[in-house]
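Submission sheet (multi-component)
Chains listed below:
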Amino acid sequence: MSGSNGTADAGAGVGAPAASGERGAVTTLETPIHIDYAFTAGQAQSRFLKGISEGRFLGQRCPKCQKVYVPPRGSCPTDGVATTDEVELGNTGTVTTYCVVNVPFQGQSIEIPYICAQVLLDGANIAFMGLIQEIPADQVRMGLRVEAVWVEPDQLEPNLSSVKYFRPNGEPDAPYESFEEYL
Amino acid sequence: MSSPVRPVAVVAFAQAPNVRREDHRNEVEMLMPVVEEVFSKVGMTKDDMGFVCSGSSDYLVGAPFSFVMALDAVGAWPPMRESHVEMDGAFALYEAWTQLQEGDIDTALVYSFGRSSPSQLEKILALQLDPYYLAPLWPDPVGLAALQAQALIDAGKATEADFAAVAARSRRDALANPNAQVKGGRSVEELLADDYVVTPLRRHTLPPISDGCAAIVLAAGDRATQACERPAWITGIDHRIETHQLGARDLTTSPSTSAAAAAAGLGGSGAGGSGPGGGARVDVAELHAPFAHQELILRDALGLGDDAVVNPSGGALAANALMVAGLTRIGEAAQRIIDGDAERALAHATSGPCLQQNLVCALAATPEGGA
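Outcome: structure written.
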């Protein structure tokens, strides 16, 4: 593939000769592109990621509607105002909805089938995506109470691979009414 | 459609200071104070807006649908009428103006944000070129602009000193603009002592790499006069594009600018207007010329004389947040009218390599635009 030096590295596909001695039409053209970016997390997400590197979930509350967002992006998407009030959320939550992944893909690091779920962390008003493990896939359900399992403390980093997965925490299922707003 | 069937005006403009690299705030955090400021100027909120339209490019930050996430700065609840262009915010303003002509809404918010710093612009801007014959060669924007500048010199239309004079004036004017990034009092002689970046372009003829954002509130008819004591009425607006094949263009001219100006009621060069260069007479012109020599081409295409007041803000040579600099030209020109410093103004925005696409907006202190 193309190097990051930005030089042309185009390849062309040429169709089969239409007649003897004649070249066929060019049917494909490859022009590889590689661009590197520096990502700016911003103030709210930086706070969140710093919290993750300390093994805790930090959200932010909207001063207008009082909803708590995690990860926070600095504003309330409903009211369009800055969220400045930081809220530490618990390590537990409720599965609001989920799917069973049966499709293998390149780079997959988890054995299929596995569960990808929306987890409503206790105290948050928006669901958070995570894996559900330590429970057979066919036993995962809406309302399942779970807790986050973190990597070892010395392996914590400011990214979401610090949260290995969520697992059932043994509490009775949450009633549907408690999370129906977040589906 | 280029002249209004319904009077629409710019009633408020706000912008963030342009910086080389905005590394503490994400797009939403950059936009929020600007949106808040533009609303506060006219005592409105998002709930007063009939339409919201934004301009930005996902390529700049490498984030798909970054324009959807940016809506968090406005707050899209209850559901709103909203649109986006993968272009400079000036073209988003054109869409909003068109919507306002329909007559069922009276107000619109237009905003744009651009982060030119996170990646390699020379590669990103190459991606806007013809994908078969040009983009695979990765021509960088400075190189393409240099071809245009050299063509101007070869045609006997301008000299390197002319380029430096544009840069010197822009930097001097930018001293009075708190949102500008490049400013200073270096003379033409001092600037000409700079090394070439790409012959015949020296550093001062190039735009800075800027991160920034801007917002404008448009209002129609009575809503405009209620919101603003002296609205900047849009008396005409149009945009035209030229072929993507650079070799097929005369890079020393800008026929698309002339055509857009004529359609916006501003004459353009050779139109026999009352302005000193044959174009319409305006008190101020804000031209989106990222490279110094492009201002000379635009002046010629618009029939602006040597004594025309061009880019008192410092223009794109002083601050060039991609996707924002064009909308900022409309905002800066409108602000002169709102502040009572001008009766008639011209704003221009460009897109694509070597002034490929051009938008011209005529603004006036009265809806009729009388000079």
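Remark: Residues 27-42 of chain B form the longest helix (16 residues).
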